[in-house]
Amino acid sequence: MTPTATAATEATRTPLIPPSTHRYSEVIHRLEAGGSMLPDTPENLKQIIGIYKAYAVPMDFYWRDLLYIAERVFLNPLPAFKYFISQEYLDLPNSYAGDQSKLRIWRGGEKAHPELLEFMARGETGNMPKLLHHLWHDRVNMEFAEACMQAMLWHQGMGGRFNDYLESDAYKANADRAIKAYFKGNPLMLGLYKLFPEMFLEQVRQLSYTANLGLFWEVMAPVFFEMSDIYDEGGFKGVPDAMDFLVNGIFAVAGRPIYHHVYIGGECYEIIPKSEGFTWLYEAALPYVEAVFYRTSPFRGTKSYNAQADQVPSDQADFHYGILYADVYPVGSAGIPPTLLMQDMLHFLPPYLKETYKEHRRGEEDELIQLGITFQRSMYNVTSAVIQALRCALLYPLDDTDPEHLMANRRFFEAQLDRFLRPEARLSDIQSQDYR
Amino acid sequence: MTLLLLLLIPVVAAVLLPLLSGEANRVRAAALAAALAQVAVGLWLWQHPPVELSLRWLPQLGLQLDLGLDGLSLPLVLMAALLTAMAILATPADQNRPRLFFALLLATNVGLVGSFVARNALLFVLAYELILIPTTLLVAIWGGPRRSTAAIRFLLYGAISGIALLAAVMAFGWLQGGGLDFSFAALAHHSLTPTQQRWILALVLLAFGLKLPVVPLHGWQPLTYSQAPTPVAMMLAGAVSKLGAYGLLRFGVAFLPDAWSAWSGWIAAVGAISAMYGALNAVAQLDMRRLVAYSSLGHMGFLLLALAAATPLSLQGVMAQMLAHGLIIALLFCLVGLIEIKTGSSEIPELSGLLNAQRGLPFTMGLMLLALMAAAGVPGQAGFVAELLVFEGSWVAYPWPTLVCLVSSGLTAVYAVRLFNRVGFGRLDNARANWASTSWTERAPALVLTALVVLGGLWPSALTGFSETDTAPLALRSSDAVTVIATSTPQELNA
Which of A328, A331, A367 to mutate to test the interface with B (most CBs of B within 10 A)? Predict the structure, then answer.
């Protein structure tokens, strides 16, 4: 039995604190029992693991291309081919998969996933030149990954030291060296840099966030592949098991470095060196969850909100356009353009998930929406893992016997769930299996 | 004798359908085959004019089986036959008591086509009265929650209309002095005094004003259209109401020209009031069916205006508007019915996001956009041609009522955009959006009607070419003034 499951049993046996009176008291009690915000049902487990698998394959492309852009394309003023990833980056060994990895999460190979390579070769339309696949949008939509990166860059200040470092003299000096090296022999660009140094620095800051997100997803892709494999082997018994795997994974990789290296003329320029000590959990995972799952931007998707009519909060921290709030229907949706990711995941759905979708609503006709809602469920589970990991790191164990400590945990959970009290939140929707 | 087939086919089908065994689909196929056969016969007759038939029936009563097709009646017969076929196609697959339903639809068709092909006023009255019975039953048995009220109101108004028409025809027959001869030929050469003409015209206006309907005789219309099942609403709004305009053209303009000319100013004013009243009410509606019903009322006002003007151009406009509006309004009811079947509601506040590509009804809404544009008179569709002819033809005679109708035509765009914006856009409610997408069978009638509406816009002579030679002799005013104003110099105009 896992530690959280043991805690759940204990808590059920001896209620040391009164029940919560929060609107989501049922969810809070579930979290206190070591569960997830997502109800523990076999179908929920099937849906979230299936979508993790479908998400992991394009994610395997996202992280490789993000690193390719941050490290190789860098400040190319006309980056028309930045999504045409080099073979070197397709073969780039994942640090958490394969025999060479020091911290192995996925038992599979370290190179690009075979399903990804197959899709890149053929797409939906069949064999044709790469440029035509690109123009026809028959490809992995990197625009989604870049939108996530831009959300992180735009919101800034979401904890950690990463953002502050981008304003430091050390960072500027490192960026300056890289910029001058990149434009060596290009008087026009060097002249522009002299005239508008902040413009170039801002571009480099964006590329640092690009590297940040690439390194974050380098971890998540093998995590999701491994979860899919475990499920296929019958390893997970319920949603809490899947969440525990994520919590354990978060702690295992929490200290992995976040950095930004640029390769120019065969030389490595360390814009953010590993020695700065930026870590995966605080500088990448938590800002990512905050920026992408919760906030993003009201101007994405097909519906724009009217700021003059107070439809957009004045404080960015109150933004609520992420996947946890998003309307995944193409009409009237906002947040990170979910349709792009949904389209990407559609190509890699495991057969059991396709079968499930066929049985409901319009079957194959609307599986894009069904998988979007599944994705929303799965992200509530990931957010649950982050909440449990934070509780674990900052507060008390779930099986603590001190009522004061349990109340502190309660206040933490309630504060987290307060963010879902606004009507746009889909937390109440995902409590029902009929939400499809 | 081929002309008789136009009536015999639906009569035989209506009688035999209730006796047909087998599944509902088989019954539908048989009904559809009858309606399509009638269309085919109509097309054949179009290619083989002149078409007339006269058989003795009850000469002592002045009742002859005088049938005929001309440029006024042929297009309406074709439209009635086509709308019957489309109404049969638009009937839901799970329609209860399908045999009786289709038989009554075909009986309505018999009355309609009988009215259009009649060349004897008494025969016309008989066919006209025949329509009332099956349509009332269709509303009363298969209508919405308020079907009883709707059916009773429809029946009462219809009965008054029928009595008024019968009175008018009988008065015509007795007063014209040639014995009991109700043939159109005899009525066209009557020798009534102006006073007699006005009394008869008053009855004619009452009878056909109720049928169109126009304000203030429209009390039955919004409720009946909103409570009638979709195929019946298509027939009532698309074809039956056109019988009112056809009757005014035949009996009012053609047979009573002096009285008509004397009262035409008032008639134009009623047309303008109807148009504005219908449009303003449509803007205020929260139910799609009622919105379409009031829209129809408004467009009937255009017809009345053009009839009042009675210029060659406006009478062409009458024919074009009858055809265009018949197709457009049937299409709108067909689409609203489809939305209602799928979503379970026709209430505008309850619906949104139906343009959603995955979960909505994007195909239906796409056709709805076309239909609304056609109703609003957007160029490239049949509605534009008809309204242009109506307004241009009426302007010379009645500029102010025409202006009012033009404004109300502009309001059509207002309620069309409002309807489409609220129902098509916005967030689709996931809790409700649990319906299947439309099948090609369900889309078929709307597709056919849409194709014809677009065809009418791209090929305007399809709307007017049939009838041009028959409307011109009926004109009571000249459109020349328009031409003179357009081509003359100021000196010529002063002279």
Answer: A331
List phi, psi (to 5°) of B51.
-120, 105
pLDDT at B227 over 90: yes
A327, A331, A365 ranked by CB distance to B425: nearest:
A331
Instruction: Quote the pLDDT of residue A300.
Output: 59
Structure token digits, residue A346 = 């559609």
Q: Rounded to an integer, what distance in angstroms lies between the CA atom of residue B74 and that of residue B466?
A: 8
Distance, in Å, from the CA atom of A340 to the CA atom of A363, rounded to the nearest integer, reads 20
pTM, two decimal places:
0.83
Q: Looking at the complex, report in whole angstroms how far the Cα of residue A43 sits from the nearest Cα belonging to chain B.
A: 19
* A424 and B CB contact within 8 Å: no
Contacts of A436 in chain B (CB under 8 A): 430
Pick from A90, A199, A151, A76: nearest CA to A320: A151
Closest CA to B365 of B284, B443, B452, B279: B443
pLDDT (tens digit per residue) in B353-395: 898 888 899 999 999 999 999 999 999 999 999 999 999 999 9
Across the interface, whether the CB atoms of B427 and A429 are under 8 A apart is answered: no
Report whether pLDDT(A204) > 90.
yes
- CA B373 and chain centroid, separation: 19
What distance in Å separates residue A366's CA from the closest CA in chain B? 5
Most confident of A94-108, A170-184, B160-174: A170-184
The Cβ of residue A159 has, within 10 Å, a number of other Cβ atoms equal to 11
Q: Under a CB-based contact definition with an 8 Å cutoff, are residues B121 and B169 in contact?
A: yes
- DSSP codes of every residue in B347-405: BGGG---TT-TTTS-HHHHHHHHHHHHHHTT-TTSHHHHHHHHHHHHHHTT-HHHHHHH
If 0-12 CB within 10 Å is exposed, 13-18 middle and 19+ buried, where does residue B336 land? buried
**Residue in the structure block whose two tokens are 């056909």:** B208
- Nearest-CB residue to B353 (from A331, A361, A362): A331
A71 in reach of chain B (CB within 8 A): no
Per-domain residue ranges for chain B?
2-483
Torsion angle in degrees (nearest 10) through CA of A388, A390, A393, A397:
-30
Q: Choose among B357, B330, B355, B354: nearest CA to B343.
A: B354
Q: Count the Cβ atoms, other than its own, within 10 Å of residue A187.
A: 9
DSSP string, A105-169: -BSS-SSS-HHHHHHHHHTTT-S--HHHHHHTT-S--HHHHHHHHHHHHHH--SSSSHHHHTTSH
| Distant-in-sequence, close-in-space partners of B157: CB < 8 Å, separation ≥ 6 | B210, B213, B217, B219, B220
Whether pLDDT at B485 is above 50: no
Find the helix packing angle between A142-155 and A338-346, rounded to 10°.
140
Restricting to B residues 412-451, those with a Cβ less than 8 Å away from any Cβ of A are 425-428, 430, 434, 436-437
Tokens of B273: 């009031």
Local confidence band at A12 (pLDDT 50, 70, 90 cut-offs):
low
Interface confidence, given as ipTM, is: 0.71
Amino acid occupying residue A196: F
For residue B53, give the amino acid letter: L
Helices (H), A280-366: 280, 286-288, 338-346, 351-358
Contact (CB, 8 A) for B108 and B65 = no
The span from the first CA to the last CA of chain B, in angstroms, equals: 57
